[in-house]
Protein 1
Amino acid sequence: MKNLSWVLVVILSIVVAIFSYKFTVGSVAPSDDGRQSVVLTKDERNAILLEMRVWLESAQGVLAAAVKDDMVEAAKIARVSGMAAEAATPGSLFRKIPLEMKKLGFATRDYFDQIAVLAETGKGSKAVIAKLSESMNNCIACHAVYRLPEEAPAK
Ligand code: HEC
């Protein structure tokens, strides 16, 4: 009996180690353009790319609202890409996306929330635009390192 518990402890430790490794490294492969390919299913990839297009829309929308000094609109648009929207992200992605990429992704959502707070608390359009500009360094940083290859078409 005692031996059996040890076997179980060892097996569980291995399972935990594998999960932690996968969680940190994610599902990646080298890419021929020097970046890392994050290998996802078609649906997961589509979900992220949709998220990306929403981020682009939010960035443009915040700028357009800030130029008009419309802080209510700026806050509303920024919240669309804030942390609350993370609920729409498929859970399976947490395992497949490398830790560094997850951090950049969450930080980007957090930036959109910060932009909303600046707008809501009357900090003005210049502060909003400055934060948006800062946040977009995350877009650049992540795109420089990761790509999402499309599945090879079935032959
Ligand atoms: C956590 C990483 C990460 C961050 C942060 C990030 N992106 Fe992306 N984005 C990606 C990856 C990976 C792709 C796929 C690129 C590829 O395969 O070449 C992508 C693709 C896109 C696309 C193409 C979408 C499509 O339908 O093909 C747009 C637009 C985009 N990102 C906008 C943004 C904007 C705007 C920001 C910042 C507000 C941003 N992204 C931040 C990882 C990120």
Note: The mean pLDDT is 92.
Protein 2
Amino acid sequence: MAKYRLVYFRGRARAELTRLIFHAAGEEFEDVQLDDQSWQQIKTTSPTGSLPMLINNETNEQLVQSMSIARYIARELGLAGSDAYEMALVDSVADTMNDLLGDIVEVTFEDDARRKKERIRRFHERALPETMEFLDRFVGRYGKGSGYAVGQNLTYADLCIYNTADQMVLAGVGGWKDLERYPNIHTIVRRIEETPRFAGYLKSRPPAAF
Ligand SMILES: N[C@@H](CCC(=O)N[C@@H](CS)C(=O)NCC(=O)O)C(=O)O
């Protein structure tokens, strides 16, 4: 039996980062993907009434909040950085990417076509370039040419970068080409795509609506 069960909807949004961390570490996990009807039946079992929720199958302990879950699993599986300072640098990339993911999720769930177009315009005018210019410099400084975001090894910071870019494309907010002007970021994204254990998973993922 897998130690952990990750419960979310049939989509990527706030759960895919943790899925990527499990895959990066080669750690088996139960990937429970609910439809809305099944969710309504168990909503009261989530401490916050929301998903994602991580359940330890051995202790039945639950954890909520997507970034807390991702950080916890990354620490457990050795993908969080090598010392306290490196961990903080990794977290700062993750939080930066999570802010951008928030913008993308907002666009995804915007039903009004005019407001959606306006949000996408603002995303390209401000959020995307400001974030990526900062991050590209950051990776140049702390990745030190390793091809990873921080230090000499893969951490969940790299997975956050990939995941946010992937969700930007999935949401129709931007394209992979938008990353080409940020060389350090582009290198990380290509590297994740080409790493065999990810390539298999990325190709086998079911199509997702969000
Ligand atoms: N800050 C929380 C947000 C959780 C959240 O808003 N989850 C949404 C899906 S992305 C949800 O559970 N919606 C269903 C509901 O509230 O009933 C996190 O990052 O986990």
Note: The chain has a mean pLDDT of 96.
